[in-house]
Amino acid sequence: MSDETSSKPPAEVDFSKDPSVTFLSKEYEFACSQMRYYDTQIFDYVKYLFTAYGSLISVVALLEKLGGTSNANFLIISQLLLFVGFCIGVLLVIMIMKTRMFFVVVARYVNTLREFFLAKQNYGFVNKSKMWVGPDIPNFGFSINSAHTWLLLIPVVLNSVVFSVLIFLFIKSMDNALFFTVIVFIGMNFVQIVPMRWYATSKMNPIDPGLNHSP
Question: Is the pTM of this model over 0.85?
Fold first, then answer.
């Protein structure tokens, strides 16, 4: 009898009833929800910028129709509106970039939890779709395959357009004003993109993403 008992394989531990696994399962659900929230926020910021710039263009066009940029008062108001709009656009770019960083941190956490569950007990599940696993994906830096990259470039370009128009209103009486405005437009794109790239690739890293503000 004892020999028969000793020959039986040990009972398998019920993985699903482990309290720590239950906690991690809830963490996974919450992290997925938070990741979707950040993703939605990025889209919302871009929509807010389109709305703000749409309103700005409408007002500036109305001022142009009423008095034209030859009228000093209307010109000053147009320049002031464009400057305020540009500042709002820069602020939204910063918020989009910061939200992207939080998104990456949470997405990496989700992928780490997914890797853990698939490694522990996958019930015969095969990740044929190659869904991301592990803490190193997605990247903090820019990727041409990332929708967030393109969503971030949209406000960058719009900011450059608004700033270029603002400069043009100041220098329109100069020779080669249009050429200089194009140079300003190209330069403003670089002025915005270079710091963001540095922030994403240098300051933010897989070990310490820089989002923990505790000492």
Answer: no
